Amino acid sequence: MASTLVSKGLDLKVADAVWVATAILQKENPKAEGFSVAEIVDRVKAEKLTEGESGSVYLHANQHCVANRPPNQARLRMLFQTKGNLRRLYCPNEPFHPARNGRFCPEPSELPASLLPLISWYEDWCVKHSRKAAASDPLLALAGTGEGRWGLNAVAYVNKLRAE
Q: Engineering a disulfide at 39: which of 35, 51, 91, 97 sits with its beta carbon 3.0 to 4.6 angstroms away?
């Protein structure tokens, strides 16, 4: 199913096409944990986002754009590999392979105006995703649980120690 964001065939960079297809899939399926490489490749084709070869689109969705996999040529951080070998968009505050230092979304100047709302949607999605991840992290959930237990404010205590 093609979205209404893309009105005609485009020739985006392959990495940008993979990011756009994944963003459209995530926007349409907000509860999905991720998408198979085949789903992303099929969406790139359905939307006619690039004139790049199918094999190149597959390699980008499978390896080149995946932040938490060792890089093989490209060092992009556009997708994140989840359980079950699925892919979803990468958020800038998530862990990534140390050899990766590339961009995590397309440059707005590289996208047609019809796709620019995806960048704003992505920024909002990352904020929500980060909050959700923090709420479900068992260690982060412990933050503040000891407050008041010793009759001291932790910040005040540390400041007192630093002053001594």
A: 35
Residue 60 lies in a domain: yes
Domain encompassing residue 53: 14-163
Distance in angstroms (rounded) separating the CA atoms of residues 108 and 81: 24
Instruction: Name the domain count of the chain.
Output: 1
* Residues with Cβ within 8 Å of residue 57, at least 6 apart in sequence: 14, 17, 18, 40, 41, 44, 45, 50
Distance, in Å, from the CA atom of 54 to the CA atom of 123, rounded to the nearest integer, reads 28
